[in-house]
Amino acid sequence: MEEQQLSFEEAMERLELIVGRLENGDVPLETAIELFQEGMKLSQLCGSKLEEVERKIEVLIEGESGLQKKPFAPANEDRGE
Question: Which spans are transmembrane here (predicted)?
Answer without folding.
Answer: none
